[in-house]
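Quick illustration, no need to memorize.
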Amino acid sequence: MKSIGRSAMLVLSLILLAGTYGCAVYPKPRLDNGYYKNFEYEFKFKLPNGWVTHNNLPDELSKGVAAEFANNFVFMLTNPETEGIILITAEKSEFDIVTIGYDKESLKEKILAKISEWEAQLAERYAFENYTYQLYPISVAEGYGPTLIYSETANSMTGDNYARGYLLNKCLKDQTCSVQVTLISKDAGYEQNFAVFSDIVNSLVKVYN
């Protein structure tokens, strides 16, 4: 009986050990020298002056277009003066680096399908119109950092404006992550908020630690 008990304990220990190695542990995201750093998705960006930072989606934004990004929420900035919201979301992408590097047409088809679906969703749920998008050249190199794949904009009759940049980033050694920077802004402060949004997109770079 003791032998059986020892065997069972050994099996249990091996299962627990396998589980430990199977789950990656990442340092927590942090604000460091004017940058937001995320180590799971391996990117950082320069924080704008005068914006409030949020590690969670506030309850008052749990409805409306901001709630669409709750599942992949990473970080958020708000500016009460300019009525601007900038959401950072991220996820493990279904596009691996091999697909990106060797089958760009297939990737383009998938992106266009995603764009079409999202345009319809914005129009149906939130009455956004005047939707525009721009695709950017897909250039992949080993160890590449955040690369802007496409951007989009739209607005609504209620004075809400929407803009998003979609980037791909090689992460976790053999995976590709997507990072999205989304702006939601009222008409009055849109130009100012859009400039900050653009600065964040352009300042996204690779980070390991």
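Residues 104-126 form the longest helix (23 residues).
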